[in-house]
Amino acid sequence: MKLTYNVQDKPKVGEILIFALQQLLAILAATICVPAQAGIPGGESAALLGAGVGTLVYLAFTKFRSPVFLGSSFAFINSMAVAYAGAMTAEVFNEALGFAGIIIGALFAGLVYVVIAIAVKFCGVKWIDKIMPPTVVGPTVAIIGLGLAGTAVTECFSWAAPEHIGNSDFYIMNANAGVSIICALIALFTVMICSVYGKKTLKLIPYVIGIGAGYLAATVFTLIGRSTGNASLILIDFDAFKTIQWIPNIAFIKGFSGLKDLTGDYIATVAVAYIPVAFVVFAEHLADHKNLSSIIEHDLLEDPGLHRTLLGDGVGSFVGALFGGCPNTTYGESIACTAVTGNASVITIAATAILAIVASFFGPFVTFLASIPACVMGGVCFTLYGFIAVSGLKMIQKVDLGDNRNLFVVSVILIAGVGGLAMAFGKIKLTSVACALILGILTNLLVSKKKD
């Protein structure tokens, strides 16, 4: 695609701030909700801090040649829950030990990346191209986006639960569903109009304007609901601004006193919870970097090199967890934002990281970001998640799907991913993306033996 700003281009200072805000909005919802889903209270601002710090570490390791933002990883939610909730001392919950545990877990995950990076440094990346050709990577990237489709739809109807009628679920269009979908569509259509019909500036910041329009509509509905006593119209909790958290729950400060309570059994439990997941996230790391490489038309696995991106991701993930508690990962939402806007400037990513760090200590801003209704983010994510899926499908445009060797590989990945093929072996959980990728690699190895 034609980029407005390439990796090393430097937009004007005013533009950088707006672009950074847009990137922050794109990754916001996923980043700050991970601690809550893992059962760690008050971790939203800390997750933002950790994402910012982790991203700067990643950029340093990749010599500022890879425009990737690292945010809280959903893959580690269960791992974090095991480490935090398992922090029991004499049958009493030890919060400091819980924070120490999630830091130790992030260290294990980071070490997996470091070991793989060393192997790649000495063995090169040609083996990756053999086991993960476009027929494997393309549909894997596609199902990352398709796998998030249900989340976007659910968020669009965030104030209404679906009802099972026959063999399908339907959203009953009442007041709750109505106001949610109206705000979602306002955000979605605003993004589309700005991106398609807008001039240069509007094309570069469609998500800022789209989320702003959706938030404005939600505010109008909320004010009407508060004045009339109609709770079904209230989409924004303005009362949250009365209890603003100014200082993030920095993980290493909270967990320092818990280090003395670490035991061998507890460390082993944390290791089992984190290490297998790190290999799953490694697969997503590859897919995301191949996807971004196709967007910027530059192979990031060669320059700055896969060993550097892995080291940046692994060390950045651990350093980010020291502050935010959450291991980080490359964000498809950020890559999709780059694809839609045509802005691949690494300066924008660095500015986003700095903005995330500053914002984490400014309570009102974090509270405002957290107050953006899920339905508004859902409308925006229709395009973000859709572009992830489409960018994956673009990777197989030149693949001959008339050849059954290619057709079988693409088919099994798409069906396994969209069908939700996920498995658990005790505490080890393989996501549908990981299962689909493994199945695709095995299929490719099986059928590729046949010569032309």
Global structural class: mainly alpha
Rounded mean pLDDT is 87
Low-confidence blocks of residues:
none
Radius of gyration: 22 Å
Which range best describes the helical content: under 10%, 10-25%, 25-40%, 40-55%, 55-70% or over 70%? 55-70%
Count of individual beta strands = 8
Tell me, briefly, the overall form. globular
Strand content: under 5%
Main sheet strand line-up: 1-6
The tally of helices reads 19
The major pleated sheet works out as: 2 strands, antiparallel
Distance between the amino and carboxyl termini:
32 Å
Order of helices and strands: HHEHEEHHHHEEHHHHHHEHHHHHEEH
Can you offer a commentary on this structure?
Helix content is 68%, strand content 5%. With 452 residues, the protein is mainly α. The chain has a two-stranded antiparallel ribbon with strand order 1-6. Helix 2 packs antiparallel against helix 15 and helix 3 (77-85) packs antiparallel against helix 12. The protein is globular and about 70 Å long.
Structure summary:
This protein is mainly alpha-helical and 452 residues long. Helices cover 68% and strands 5% of the residues.
